[in-house]
Amino acid sequence: MKPFTFICGDDDFLVTREGQAVFAEKTKDLADDFSKETIDGAAQNMGEVESALNQFRSATQTMSMFGDKKVVWLKDVNFFADSVTGRAEGTKKLVTEWQEELARLDPAGVDVLITAHPVDRRRKEFKWFAKNSDYTDLKSGTSDDFLLDLLSAESQRLKVSFTHGASQALIGLVGGNTRLVLEEARKLATYLGSEGGEITDELVIQMVPHFGEGDFFEAVEAFFALDLNWTLDALRRYFFIHKEARPLISNLQGRNRLMIQLRVLMDSGEISLGPRGFGKGPFEAAARKYQQHFGTFDAKSNFNVFTQNLWYLGNKVAPPSAKLKLKQLVDFQIAFTRAFEDLMRKPTDQQSVMRDLAITCLS
User: Fold this and answer.
1) Does domain 214-362 correspond to CATH entry 2.40.40?
2) Interacting residues of 108 by C-beta distance below 8 A, sequence separation 6+
3) Which of 14, 158, 217, 353 could be bridged to 213 by S-S, CB 3.0 to 4.6 A?
């Protein structure tokens, strides 16, 4: 048996979530609260690293009052990261001394759980932890394939199933955010009840809000629905809460940028919009064909349509594109640029600038 459990990864939500589940399992038979202890391992400098390790050392050396096995969780350790604190020679010395103590732990008397994020897997200190522990490395990512696998595992845990369209819809609506994918899946499962069942794309669309564009979503949706009255009403609601229009302009430009790329691909016959969006095969073929023109994109970007979620493109972005010609979309982009320049010239009259933009484009 390894002397301790080590869970790590780059996504703090996934690591903490797994740590909570393991800690709950390790402590489920312990009635004495003094037999379970949690220590914060987040440190901003070498002094805080030393303080956290001292607290950990004290916790592992203090036994339970009732003779139970003690469980100690050092959570949110961040000094394995490629950071100033993590690279400091003083930190490395403290960690080396800590390793010697961990190697001597008796898991029958004290059960230690360590969770760490982010981590630099190149460091010899990290490699020691991976080799000498009950080790779990939680991979993370934002690709649709990664999120689909994550959602599949979560749906099994929740005893529900997602149709393929529902999975794609959920990932698209939350903007590929890991935490939101899992939290919204749990919300949908709760809605179905203890008996579980199937989650359909219709249910996802009905119950999951669109997180990708935040507070700007209504105004952007209204504009690209080509509905002037709705857009003007949405702008009034937006400026009732917000003072600054530049984030709204940025969202309009970003959506329009994607629509221009889709319009070109549709006009050329590379892809076509069907009742359920775009076909995966033609879209991937187009991505391979034009990859050289986009360069490398490791994250989603509206400068590269092929980094986007296919469901989001087919069900949210593309329908207005089908109603507009390429020239109109280019004219929109020019109008957005001019409106941005007007905002710089008239910073105290931003609502009227946006209202004029909407009237110019949609009337």
Assistant:
1) no
2) 69
3) 217
CA distance 253 to 334: 9
Evaluate the CA torsion angle 324, 328, 330, 335 in order and state its sign: negative
Beta carbons within 8 Å of 294's beta carbon, 6+ residues apart: 303, 304, 306
Does domain 144-207 sit in CATH 1.20.1380.10?
Answer: no
Q: Is 303 helix (H, G, I), strand (E, B) or coil?
A: coil
pLDDT tens-place string over residues 41-68: 999 999 999 999 999 999 988 876 666 7
Specify the amino acid at residue 174.
Answer: V
CATH 3.40.50.300 domain position(s) in the chain = 4-138
Residue-wise pLDDT for 163-182, tens only, equals: 878 888 888 778 778 888 89
- Please give the Cα distance from 203 to 182 (Å, whole number): 16
Q: Which two tokens stand for residue 176?
A: 């590929």
Beta strands (DSSP E) in 290-363 are none
Tell me what pLDDT residue 64 has.
67
Q: Closest Cα partner for 235 from 248, 225, 253, 251?
A: 248
**Rounded mean pLDDT, 254-279:** 90
Q: What share of the chain is helix, strand, coil (3-state, %, to 5)?
A: 60, 10, 25
Give span(s): CATH 1.10.8.60, the chain: 144-207
CATH code of the domain occupying 4-138: 3.40.50.300
Domain with CATH 1.20.272 in the chain: 214-362
CA 182-187-189 angle, 5° bins: 95
Rounded-to-integer distance, Cα 207 and Cα 222, Å:
20
Q: Which two tokens stand for residue 350?
A: 């931003």
